[in-house]
Amino acid sequence: MRIIKSFKGKDIPIFPITLCASPPNSFGKKIVDAGVDTGFGGFVSVSKQVAKNMGLNASDSMRLTLGNRKPHAFLYCLGRAEFGAKMKTGTVIISDSDEVLIGMKFLRQFELHLIVDPISEVAILTDEDPPIQAPDPLS
Amino acid sequence: MDVKKIAKRGEEIYARRYKENFERNYRGKYMVIDITTEDYSIASTPEEATQEAHKKNPKGVFYLIRIGYSGVYRMRTHLTSADY
Lengths: 139, 84
What we know:
The complex is a heterodimer. Chain A is 9% helix and 48% strand. Chain A has helices spanning 48-53, 104-109, and strands at residues 2-6, 14-21, 30-36, 44-47, 60-66, 71-83, 86-95, 100-102, 113-117, 122-126. Chain A is globular, with a radius of gyration of 16 Å. Chain A starts with a strand and ends in a 13-residue tail after the last strand. In chain A, 37% of the residues are buried. Chain B is of the alpha+beta class.
């Protein structure tokens, strides 16, 4: 699988993902546009409005370490995400931002490689062989 | 209950009952504390710890910790309204 998206006029690459509650509820699955945020270590973050539209019942709490290095408490729940032919369960954080974000854990769980060209404003998500090899630590 | 109050109570229980032992033995694992009973569930992933905690007490109020870390994840691009 190799999905190529233009992100002209946007700050970060955006890809459509499918989300639902875990276990699934009567609200069913929703397709949302999610920004790929490599500064976010988690799985998925959604706004309060998206959580409400999906019937996500977030009552558990966790702290995230923010950009100012301070911990801040957020509500979370478990949710299911689909991308390509795969489905994974992970933590869905309810943020006060309007954006839906996917973080590094999402990419790891789905075994996705992210390639970004900020000049032509194109991003690729692929689960094919690694396009970049890790350097030999001794070289 | 307010999210900040859950976190504050969870941190207080963790510091008082578990921190000293768990940071020596379970660093990097995920722990969910039920703040109504002070019981806990530990697992290698936050999903497993959360599911286990809910199974133990479906009516619990839960706080997730990554043992040895100030936050479960980093969100470097995010600030709260209080920071502006």
